[in-house]
Amino acid sequence: MSKKVRVRFAPSPTGGLHVGGVRTVLYNYLFAKKLGGQFIVRVEDTDQSRYVPGAEEYIFDCLRWCGLEPDESVQHGGPYGPYRQSERKTLYREYAAQLVAAGHAYYAFDTTAELEQMREKFRSTENPSPQYDHHLRLKMRNSLTLPAEEINKLLAAKTPHVIRIMMPVGKTVSFQDMIRGEVCFDTSLVDDKVLLKADGMPTYHLAVVVDDYLMKITHAFRGEEWLPSAPVHLLLWQYLFGWEEMPQWAHFPLLLGPSGKLSKRDGAKYGFPVFAMNWQDPKTGETTEGFREKGFLPSAFINLLALLGWNDGSEKEIFSKGELIASFDMARVHSSGAKFDYEKAKWFNHEWIKRTSASELLPLVSNTFGKANLQVTNVALLEQVITLVKDRCTLLTDFIEQGSFFFKRPTQIDTGSILPKWSVEKSTFFDQLIHYYQQTNSWTAAALEKICKELAQTHQLKTGELLLPLRIMLVGGKFGPGVFDIACLLGKDETLERLAQAKRLILQGV
Ligand code: GLU
Predict the structure, then answer these.
(1) Ligand 1 atom nearest to CA at 44
(2) Domains by residue range for the chain, with CATH
(3) What is the pTM of this model?
């Protein structure tokens, strides 16, 4: 019987969640859901020096916003907890000790100063940054070089020490990456990584292997920046649990920005978000804008991320979450880096705004208006406005320009765009238009258009020349949906008041 699929996302709470990180979550999630498996989030907080307060909460908030809820996690609980590595601290030491006993790892007592000296002493042009590896391990103070008696004494006196893996010399280790095929490493080229630190905390290398085993992870997917660590993890799997227990691995390619690897700096430079949501660095107080605040829909965000490095083999680009789950295939994830293109990201959002119903958009638009200090009480009107303007909106924030004038009379009228072409004839025309609009009992866009066109004919004016001033008089500028649709939704009283008020302003400017 095949094992139940269990995948994990294992973030370190060291900052905000970058688009690349969310894409890793997404591919994990899609893979698990397609196969009826479970998606686990494990917080890897063993490096306390890099811990950033608030980052863990932020990561879970991002996942919630994206609709990628874990099945098991610090916040969701589950049978394999605790899901925060710092709370599992005591269980790692026994595995490290087991490795020492089997001769695959050793105690190292070198102080920071001694390590520094070693780097100084062995630095050369061929070897500019000497590593603690098979060349040097026998020149250092560790359980390979010290007599047994002294080792026992040092351990009994609780002398600070770390446990390092002893990388074999001249061996090749390999694995089958689900995206890249066979990947091989020469173990001689890898240093003796620390597995357990002096404070008793495991490093990432030991903790990731132990936890993937204990949490019964069947597939481990992560960014390709972790490939260089793979030989260490492969050996740990072999030494501790045996190859058969090892999950299948895939390493996702980098997301590329205009200048190579997509970075926070690219966002600042080119004006696009790199985080899922706003991230405020608690140390610097600096805020980096996120996709949520820019006005993206979660549906569009996950759609665009899915396509950054994967496709279903056809030209299809728009996928709902359900369609992504149904079509996702790890074998179709590209092995080379995907380029992030902000214009394309906006295209996805525009498509999703068009496809999303006004009632679903309602709370999001209402929230966007709220942030712009516009409280909408007439929800029915807002829904009509959304229906009318959504095809013109690329980002949720565009609803402000396209729709806020329905709820707030414009404080400024762009008379500058009207006055150069203003004439006595136009003035008379608008007086009469106001009059006819006052008289009419049928307040529909079609009826209002008919009145306007017939009146224009009577006055021998071109309708084209009248629509722009009419629009500006109603909304303040050159934006918004069809002008008669606007008048229809504004209602008779409001339309007439706006026309009269704008007319006064124009006359003052003539
Ligand atoms: N804690 C690692 C990170 O921050 C996880 C890498 C992995 O998934 O193995 O990315």
Answers:
(1) 1
(2) 88-214 (3.90.800.10), 356-397 (no CATH), 415-509 (1.10.10.350)
(3) 0.93
**Which comes out higher in pLDDT, residue 1 or 403?**
403
Q: 203-216 in b/e burial notation, b at 16+ Cβ within 10 A?
A: bbbbbbbbbbbebe
| Closest-CA residue to 60 (of 52, 70, 51, 71) | 70
Letter string b/e over residues 306-341, b meaning 16 or more CB atoms within 10 A of that residue's CB: bbbbbbbeeeeeebebeebbebbebeebeeebbebe
Distance CA 257, CA 308 (A): 12
CA of residue 53 to ligand 1 center, whole Å = 18
Selected catalytic residue, list 33, 193, 264, 346: 264
Token pair of 92, please? 């790692």
Q: How confident is the model at residue 268 (pLDDT cuts 50, 70, 90)?
A: confident
Separation of 10 CA from ligand 1 center, angstroms?
A: 5
pLDDT band at 482 (very low <50, low <70, confident <90, very high): very high
Residues with CB under 6 A from ligand 1: 10-12, 44, 204, 208, 222, 226
Averaged pLDDT, 245-258? 94
Q: How confident is the model at residue 261 (pLDDT cuts 50, 70, 90)?
A: confident
| pLDDT tens-digit map of 201-222 | 999 999 999 999 999 999 999 9
| Count of Cβ atoms closer than 10 Å to residue 241 Cβ | 16
Angle value at C-alpha 225, between 219 and 231, nearest 5 degrees: 65
Per-residue model confidence (pLDDT) at position 1: 55
Q: How far apart are alpha carbons 192 and 168 in whole angstroms?
A: 9
294 as an active site residue: the answer is: no
Q: Are 419 and 318 in contact (CB under 8 A)?
A: no
Distance CA(32)–CA(295), nearest Å, equals: 29
Ligand 1 pocket test target in 44, 215, 236 with most atoms within 8 Å of CB: 44
